[in-house]
Amino acid sequence: MGSLLEVQNVSRDYRSYGRRQISALREVSFSMEKGRCLGIVGESGCGKSTLCRMIAGIEKPTAGNIFYNQIPVRDRSLRGKIQMVFQNSLDAVNLHMDIFHTVSEPLENFFTMSKAGRRAETVRLLETVGLCAEDLDKYPRQLSGGQLQRICIARALAARPELLLLDEPLSSLDVTVQAQILNLLSDLKKELNLSCILVSHDLEAVYYLADELIVMYGGGVVEKLEDIERFRELCHPYTRRLLMAHEWEDRPDRRKKMPDKILFDGKKSKAEIKSKVGCVYAERCPYVTAQCLVARPELVQRTSGHWVACYR
């Protein structure tokens, strides 16, 4: 089976106010197949949201290429096939537009149907995400954070996408609502055979929903795992530090009951992280050697389906 998505040596640079170049992404490569959910985890500033925006075609890579079914993602023929749910649902909608027009906008853009047909389809979409027809005439500020995130998911589904990009969809929600949205996404993935990319700093949420995993740090990929069920095999010092700190491996029931949150703890600024010559994790790694400070480790296949960027 061919890959649905191919990310090939993608880098993204920005210029700061002092004209200093900041590398948000460095030579990121991966692929995913149709019907899978890829989790991309990492702390704030690691480049995961930038990567997600480039897959959506919102931003252009400084170097490298991204292909969807062997077509460059910025090709206009892909409009509608890749949809994105953004981190802050309140900023992602027009506060002066009612829910009917918010959700039905993709229907008007991508399909030919009457207003009555759009209204019926919008009701169906709202019911798909656990809302009802009574919400059609409401405005965003009349809804809770969880309800508004469901609206954003419904709007993304209106275009009938093949790939759904979820950029920190839980970060602004309380714990109870987070669990509800995760369950909703899990059901939609199964019912619609959606391919998904879940971008998050919350390792627990990604483990719950994803089939495979990428761990990012400092603009690069430090670990890749094709099968999330092999979670115990994660071994990069950065990943292991997180797992050991929260006693993740001591929870045999972690699939049945969602455990306490596991959050990435990095506090360094983007400038500090991106300025390193060697391994991006060297300054925080307990196993650092002289080699780590002068040369960046490449991703190496440790076992089948498992890659790690570490000299250990």
Question: What's the arrangement of secondary structure elements?
Answer:
Layout: E1 5-15, E2 21-32, E3 37-41, H1 48-55, E4 63-68, E5 71-72, E6 82-85, H2 99-110, H3 115-128, H4 145-158, E7 163-167, H5 175-192, E8 195-200, H6 203-209, E9 212-217, E10 220-225, H7 237-245, H8 270-274, H9 290-294, E11 300-303, E12 306-308
Parallel strand pairs: 3-8, 3-9, 6-7, 7-8
Antiparallel strand pairs: 1-2, 1-4, 4-5, 9-10, 10-12, 11-12
Helix pairs in contact: 2-3, 2-4, 3-4, 4-5
Q: How would you sum up the major sheet?
A: 8 strands, mixed
**Proportion of residues in β-strands:** 15-25%
* Strand arrangement, major sheet: 6-7-8-3-9-10-12-11
Proportion in helices: 25-40%
Sequence stretches where pLDDT stays below 50 over 5 or more residues? 254-275
- N-to-C span: 33 Å
Can you count the helices? 9
Can you give a write-up of this model?
The chain has 312 residues and is α/β, with parallel strands linked by helices. It is built from 9 helices and 12 strands. An 8-stranded mixed sheet has the order 6-7-8-3-9-10-12-11, sandwiched between helices. A 4-stranded antiparallel sheet has the order 2-1-4-5. Helix 2 packs across helix 3 and helix 3 crosses helix 4. The radius of gyration is 20 Å and the shape is elongated. The two termini are 33 Å apart. About 7% of the residues have low confidence.
